[in-house]
Design a protein that fits this description.
CATH class of the largest domain: Alpha Beta
Structural class: alpha/beta
Number of domains: 2
Bound molecules: adenosine monophosphate
Strand content: 15-25%
Distance between the termini: 8 Å
Largest sheet: 6 strands, parallel
Number of strands: 17
Radius of gyration: 23 Å
CATH architecture of the largest domain: 3-Layer(aba) Sandwich
CATH topology of the largest domain: Rossmann fold
Number of helices: 14
Shape: elongated
CATH superfamily of the largest domain: Phosphoglycerate kinase, N-terminal domain
């Protein structure tokens, strides 16, 4: 593979796989959050500045049966133009075929072409080779800048790479920085390395927990998933979230932690509610002694103090998943306090990486996004990276 920053794109047509899967209003087609589009702009600009042209391909939404209006990438054209300082954006209403090919071959240095949604073809998600080969004919160089879909072995994210010679395939700037941040934490974390894992379900986080047991000094577990651990210890968790079929797994994780000298911290107390609702009655209790009919929806004040101490002592921090139901004001204190502690530790010199959909939403919502070292754009991809899996989108370029 080539190194993006060292490659001269003059007179090259760069086919970039971006992740423009942004939330779009179903009726007005307005873009509700353009973070993913913004993240691809530095890569696009470098190619244009070199004197190359850019062909952008992405998926949007989950179209099931071919083309549909609400998932058309045409809705992104105007905003993309604004993000590129008013540059005219050409649009091809197909991602393969004669029309797309002709538009691509007519591109001049400095031009930008956006292709229609890749997932209007079922072949994209199936990783179909013939489809990937057709896509590859649209550009001279392949750039993968879609970290958000790097864990998928789809035609445009992985399979396509084999149709380009080594020197004509590479990661874009976003992919490079995501990989660098993740590798820094996974492979060369300065200790103490504190992993903060939260969210709803143990079942979603088993593999990441197991992999982190090998690496992290401390693992803080918060959110709904903590209660399965308390039940495993014989605690009374009321009607808190619990995965009964994961109680054995929770026990195994605790046993392994003891063997590996990794310290697991569970929230000793909880903010509890009499129903899962913003207007529920609220109280607090020890997490192993929650009254019947009540559920833990946030970590309590003692747990907060304890977790903050551990975080302040860290040299490397990984955070995936909120500490409570942060979408409701009554249950956001824990997540907010943890976000603040991660920001403070970062200011003191720790390296902090926040990855995974809801913790990213939380640092954004509470205004700490620019106070941590790196905020990942890839939820599922980041999770799989930290589970220790090889991501197909990365492997295809590295080969
Ligand atoms: P995940 O996608 O697994 O990271 O889970 C994120 C979701 O977990 C968020 O929507 C939170 O509201 C939810 N969550 C966090 N803590 C709890 C809790 N104690 N009980 C129920 N849901 C929770």
């Amino acid at each position: 593979m080539s190194k993006f920053s060292e490659y001269n794109f003059a007179n090259q047509k760069a086919l970039i796989r971006v992740d423009f899967n942004v939330p779009v209003d179903k009726k007005t087609f307005e873009i509700k959050d353009d973070t993913r589009m913004k993240a691809a702009i530095p890569t696009i600009k470098k190619i244009l500045n070199d004197g190359g042209s850019v062909i952008l391909m992405s998926h949007l939404g989950r179209p099931k049966e071919g083309p549909e209006e609400k998932s058309s990438l045409r809705h992104l054209v105007k905003h993309l133009s604004e993000l590129l300082d008013g540059k005219a954006i050409q649009f091809a209403d197909d991602c393969i075929g004669e029309g797309a090919k002709q538009k691509a071959s007519a591109l001049k240095p400095g031009d930008v072409l956006l292709l229609e949604n890749l997932r209007f073809y079922k072949e994209e998600e199936k990783g179909d080779e013939a489809f990937a080969e057709k896509l590859s004919k649209i550009g001279d160089v392949y750039v993968n800048d879609a970290f958000g879909t790097a864990h998928r072995a789809h035609a445009s994210t992985a399979v396509i790479a084999k149709f380009f010679p080594k020197e004509k395939k590479m990661f874009g700037l976003l992919m490079e920085s995501e990989i660098k941040a993740a590798e820094k934490v996974l492979k060369s974390a300065e200790k103490p390395f504190v992993a903060i894992i939260g969210g709803a379900k143990v079942s979603d986080k088993i593999l990441i927990l197991e992999n982190l047991l090998e690496r992290a000094t401390d693992i803080i577990i918060g959110g709904g998933m903590a209660y399965t651990f308390f039940k495993a210890e014989g605690g009374n968790i009321g009607s808190s979230l619990c995965e009964d079929d994961r109680i054995e797994t929770a026990k195994e994780i605790m046993d392994k932690a003891a063997e590996k000298n990794s310290c697991i911290h569970l929230p000793s107390d909880s903010i509890i509610a009499d129903k899962f609702a913003a207007d529920a009655s609220v109280s607090s209790s020890m997490s192993t002694n929650i009254p019947d009919g009540w559920m833990g929806l946030d970590i309590g004040t003692m747990a907060c103090d304890m977790f903050i101490k551990v975080i302040h002592n860290a040299k490397t921090i990984l955070w995936n998943g909120p500490m409570g139901v942060f979408e409701m004001e009554n249950f956001q204190h824990g997540t907010k306090a943890i976000a603040k502690a991660v920001a403070e530790a970062t200011e003191k010199g720790a390296y902090s990486l926040v990855g995974g959909g809801d913790s990213v939403a939380a640092v954004n919502q509470f205004g700490f996004a620019d106070k941590v070292s790196y905020v990942s754009t890839g939820g599922g991809a980041m999770l799989e990276f930290f589970e220790g899996k090889e991501l197909p989108g990365i492997a295809a370029i590295n080969k």
